[in-house]
Write a structure and sequence with these properties.
This protein is α+β, with helices and mostly antiparallel strands and about 600 residues long. The chain is about 45% helix and about 10% strand.
Length: about 600
C-alpha cells in the first residue's frame, strides 16, 4: 500500500452534509446548480439478489430495534445486503416503525447524528426519514443543505414539508425548476429578499403554460404569497399574479392535490376575490377571474375546507363584479386570434358559474371549457352532493369530455348495468390508471356503484366511494338537460359534434368508402377549425378486400366559415356522401409502408 493509499484508508470519510455545504460555498454566487449536486455513481457489480419485498423486510430488520449510532446502522445494512438502490424503501420502513413516546428523544438524537455526520446516502436517508417524524425547527438548515444532493432531494423536501413548508418549496424550486423565465424568481427566493421576490413574482410571464400546478403551488409557498398580499393590499399586479397562480393550481389536467395541499389557499382566494374590484378590467384579468369562478363552482376548489357560506359568498362577489359593464366589455375588441377566442369564451361562459342549478346538488353535470389561452380540454364535471367526483376520487386526470360521456349516452341509466369510464390519467390508463363506475336503474332509482380504479404505477389508490342512489326522474332530467345544453360550445366544436351525430346516425356515409369514424372535434390549438378523422382499409368498395389489421388514419381539417353550425355540418356530411374523403383528407396515422403500398403520400415530419 502506498503512503497516499494508507493515508486515505486512515482518514474518515467526510459527512455528506459537509460535502454539500462545501460545494455550495465554492459556487460562484452561492447558488446551487439546476438539478442539484450529484455523487459519483458506484458501478454495479452484480444483480440485486433481493426482491422488493425482501429488501423492504431487510430494511425493517436493520431498523428494529433502532441502532444507537450510525456505525451500527451501516454495519447492519452491509450484513443484510441493503444497497443504495434500496433507499426508496426507507421512507415506508421508517414511517411504519412503532415509536412509543419514551423512544422519541432517542429517535430524534439518532436522526440528527445520521443527518449531520452520515457519510452514505442510505444512512443519511434514514436520518431524514426519522426527522420527518420527530424533527424540530433546528433541523431545517441541515435538511435544506442535504436536499441539494440529487439523491436526497425527495426525502429532504418531504421532511421539510412538515417542518417548514416555505423552506421545502425554496429547495424544491432551486433543484427542480428548469425554465429560464423562473430563474430570477428562484434566485430571489434563495437569497430571501422579500422586495426582490415581489418584483420577480410580478415579472413572471402571463402565459398560463409557463408553470404546472406543482410549480405554481411551490412558488406560492416559497414566496409567502398570502403574507405578501396582506403587506401590499393595493398592489394590483401582485393580486393578478396571485389569481393566476391559483388558476394553475386548480388546473384540471394537472394534479388536484396541489391546490388541496396549499395551506393558504382559502386566504389567497379571499384576497383575490375580495379585492378583484381593484383590478383593471383587462382581458387577462377577466379570463383569470372567470377561471377562478369555474373552479369555485364545480372544480377542485370546491373540495377545500371552506367555512359555511364562504365559497358561495366569494362566487356571489365575483358574479356581481363580472356583470359590471366595464368587465362585460373586457376584450371585446381583441384583434389577435387568441384574444378573439378568449373574448368569445368569456361571452359564452361568463355567467355559467354563477347560475343556480335547476336540479338539487345531489346529482349535477357541468360541461366546462377552460381558457383558450391555456388549451384546456373540455370536461364533463359530475358533482354528487355538490362535490366534483373526479378530483375528489381519482385526481390523476381530468373528467372525460361531453363527446364521450354525453354525446353517445354513456351516462344514461338502463335496466342492464353498464360500466362507464369517467376519467383517464393524462398519461394513459396503462401508465397511471382510470376511474370507472357502474350505472344501473333499479325501479324508481338510478344507482352508481362498484367504483373501480385501475392503477399500474406506484401511486396509492384513493378510497373507493360508496354506492349512490338518485331519484330516477330527477336523474333522467339532468342527463337530458346536459345532453341538449350546447351553450358552452364554440361554433367549430358545435359543427364537429353535429358531424359526429350525423355519422353515428348514418354509418354508411363512411362505410361506402371502406372507412370508419375516428375522432371528431375542434382543435384546441386552433378553435376556428374542425378536425374529422377516419380509418381506412381496402374493402368491398374498392373491389380488393385486404387485411383489416393495418388501417391508415386520415384527417380532414374544415375551417369555420362563419355560417351557422347546422349549415356547415350539413355541407360536410353531403361531401362525405358524394366524394371519397380519401381524395381530400390527408394521411395522419398508420405506417409509412402501408401508405406507400396503397398509394397515399406519407405526411412530411417537418
Amino acid at each position: 500500500m502506498s503512503a497516499r493509499e494508507e493515508r486515505d484508508a486512515l482518514t474518515p470519510p467526510t459527512a455528506l452534509h459537509d460535502r454539500v455545504l462545501r460545494l455550495l460555498r465554492e459556487s460562484a454566487d452561492g447558488f446551487p446548480p439546476r438539478r442539484g449536486y450529484s455523487l459519483p455513481r458506484k458501478t454495479a457489480t452484480d444483480e440485486d439478489p433481493l426482491s422488493r419485498q425482501e429488501a423492504l423486510r431487510a430494511v425493517r430488520e436493520a431498523l428494529s430495534p433502532l441502532p444507537d449510532d450510525p456505525a451500527t446502522l451501516h454495519s447492519r445494512f452491509e450484513r443484510l445486503g441493503i444497497r443504495d438502490r434500496h433507499r426508496h424503501l426507507i421512507k415506508a420502513a421508517v414511517g411504519g416503525l412503532p415509536l412509543p413516546a419514551e423512544q422519541v428523544d432517542a429517535a430524534r438524537t439518532l436522526g440528527r447524528r445520521l443527518v449531520r455526520t452520515g457519510t452514505t446516502v442510505l444512512t443519511v436517508t434514514v436520518g431524514i426519514a426519522l426527522l420527518r417524524r420527530v424533527g424540530e425547527p433546528e433541523d431545517v438548515p441541515y435538511l435544506s443543505v442535504l436536499g441539494l444532493l440529487r439523491d436526497l432531494t425527495g426525502p429532504a423536501v418531504h421532511a421539510l414539508d412538515i417542518l417548514d413548508r416555505r423552506c421545502a418549496a425554496v429547495l424544491w424550486l432551486a433543484v427542480s425548476v428548469r425554465r429560464d423565465e423562473l430563474q430570477p424568481l428562484v434566485r430571489a427566493l434563495w437569497t430571501d429578499d422579500p422586495q426582490a421576490v415581489r418584483m420577480e413574482l410580478i415579472a413572471l410571464p402571463d402565459a398560463p403554460l409557463f408553470a404546472d400546478s406543482t410549480v405554481a403551488r411551490r412558488i406560492a409557498e416559497a414566496s409567502g404569497l398570502s403574507g405578501l398580499l396582506d403587506d401590499h393590499p393595493a398592489d394590483t399586479r401582485l393580486l393578478a399574479r396571485a389569481g393566476r397562480l391559483l388558476v394553475r393550481m386548480g388546473c384540471s389536467r394537472d394534479d388536484p392535490a396541489d391546490l388541496l395541499a396549499y395551506r393558504d389557499a382559502l386566504r389567497v382566494y379571499d384576497s383575490v376575490a375580495g379585492r378583484a374590484g381593484l383590478l383593471p378590467p383587462t382581458l387577462d384579468n377577466a379570463a383569470m377571474l372567470l377561471s377562478l369562478a369555474l373552479d369555485l363552482s364545480s372544480g377542485t376548489g370546491v373540495l377545500l375546507d371552506w367555512r359555511p357560506g364562504q365559497r358561495a359568498a366569494l362566487l356571489e362577489s365575483l358574479g356581481r363584479l363580472s356583470a359590471e359593464p366595464r368587465w362585460t366589455s373586457a376584450g371585446a375588441t381583441g384583434g389577435e386570434a387568441v384574444q378573439r377566442w378568449r373574448a368569445d369564451w368569456i361571452r359564452r361562459t361568463g355567467r355559467r358559474p354563477f347560475r343556480q342549478p335547476a336540479t338539487p346538488d345531489m346529482f349535477r353535470i357541468e360541461v366546462v371549457t377552460g381558457d383558450p389561452a391555456d388549451r384546456e380540454p373540455v370536461e364533463t364535471r359530475v358533482l354528487i352532493d355538490g362535490r366534483p367526483v373526479v378530483p375528489a376520487v381519482f385526481g390523476r386526470g381530468r373528467a372525460h369530455g361531453p363527446e364521450y360521456l354525453l354525446d353517445e349516452g354513456r351516462l344514461r341509466a338502463g335496466e342492464e348495468p353498464r360500466e362507464v369510464q369517467l376519467a383517464e390519467a393524462d398519461c394513459t390508463e396503462g401508465c397511471c390508471g382510470a376511474l370507472y363506475v357502474t350505472i344501473r336503474r333499479e325501479a324508481d332509482q338510478v344507482v352508481w356503484e362498484n367504483w373501480r380504479q385501475t392503477m399500474t404505477g406506484s401511486r396509492e389508490l384513493g378510497a373507493e366511494p360508496p354506492a349512490h342512489r338518485f331519484d330516477a326522474s330527477a336523474y333522467d332530467a339532468e342527463i337530458a338537460r346536459a345532453e341538449t345544453d350546447d351553450a358552452w360550445s364554440w361554433r367549430a366544436l358545435t359543427v364537429a359534434r353535429l358531424i359526429k351525430t350525423g355519422l353515428i346516425g348514418e354509418p354508411d356515409l363512411l362505410g361506402r368508402w371502406d372507412a370508419s369514424r375516428g375522432w371528431i372535434s375542434s382543435c384546441l390549438e386552433d378553435p376556428d377549425t374542425v378536425l374529422v378523422t377516419f380509418w381506412y382499409s381496402p374493402g368491398p368498395a374498392s373491389g380488393r378486400p385486404e387485411r383489416a389489421d393495418s388501417p391508415l388514419q386520415f384527417r380532414w381539417v374544415i375551417p369555420d366559415d362563419g355560417t351557422p353550425p347546422e349549415a356547415q355540418a350539413a355541407a360536410a356530411l353531403r361531401r362525405l356522401a358524394e366524394e371519397d374523403p380519401k381524395s381530400y383528407a390527408q394521411v395522419c396515422g398508420g405506417s409509412r409502408e402501408r401508405a406507400e403500398e396503397l398509394g397515399f403520400p406519407w405526411p412530411d415530419s417537418t
